[in-house]
Amino acid sequence: MPLSLPHAFVKRHAWIALTGLALGPQAVADESTQVVASFSVLADMVRNVGGDRVEVTSLVGPDSDPHVYSPRPTDARALAEADLVVLNGLQFEGWMTRLLDASGYQGKTVVATDGVPLLAYGGQSLHRQKEEGAEHDHKEHDHEEHDGHDHDSHEEHDSHEEHGGHGDHDSHEDHEDHDGHDDHDSHDHGEYDPHAWLDLSAGLIYVANIRDGLIAVDPDNSEHYASRADSYMEDIQAAHDQVLALLDDLPEHAQVIVGHDAFGHFSRAYGIDFLSPVGLSTEAEPSAADIARMVDVIRERQIPALFVENMSSPALMEQLSEETGVPIAGSLYNGALSEEGMTSHYLGMILHNAEVLHQGLVDAEGHDDSHDGHDHDHDHDH
Prior knowledge:
Low-confidence stretches: 14-29, 123-187, 366-382
Mean pLDDT: 77
Strand content: 5-15%
Number of strands: 8
Order of helices and strands: HHEHEHEHEHHHHHEHEHEHEH
Helix content: 40-55%
């Protein structure tokens, strides 16, 4: 079932590009609201809402990893000249607070995840699953010493409780240092999964926040921003419906292996279990024990497909594929768009992921019975 970008989205994006070419970059810049977005996914959203009224600078560009980004002097200058700054929040950009302070930026800041239901990290990392497996082994062997151990974390992991919005973030000092988590490394996101854009329903909230931020700094063009945001939201909803329809064809309780723990929001929205070897960091290297554990999991659960990520080295997945005979079914995108092609746009990225997952898993329906006994409930609430 081939996927395509919504027709209205394609026409609008082409019009933006042609307008920029016709007027020239200086002519557009002179009349534009200057927006700095922290990474490429947000930059694409801003361009779709702002159209020819905005000029967008993405601090972390396409095919670049926001987890390990090191700001440059030019970034501080771009922020100092900006009318609006858009960031993800939820400690995704661990470097952003220091950069905002260094630039002296005092303008409006949009935290795109404001109002998105929070998702606590849980269950996707094989490190956590190893601990859970150890707990079950203790239970099966009736170890009396197990009585003193507290495993409340499983209830937290399985519930995926939704929390309310984040409140009002008028100062950038509040954006990254929540609840005392001010000592995290750039790739340590804290308590909640920040990759909310991978759920297109959350993408609707991102767009609404961006729209409101643009209207706040450029009220004379409020109707322009509101109209474009409405059209873009229709495109997002159409893409969301396409993804749901496509992934409904997948074997029930499908499980796949990916490089790091970034797909929790996608999993909750679309019903696929993503297992990762090393947790959150795109820099972390699995140990020999981690790799052995992964091989066991792949064989025990008869995982039908492995997937590489556009920001990570394929070496680990290639090794696992060689050791298990499980094929690498394709590349998934999560934290960065590509330079060109379908995945150079937010909606194209999500639709690409759905298509790759569909191709990799539907063709492996013969493995369906391997998931007996693995009760992973998935609610299609969207």
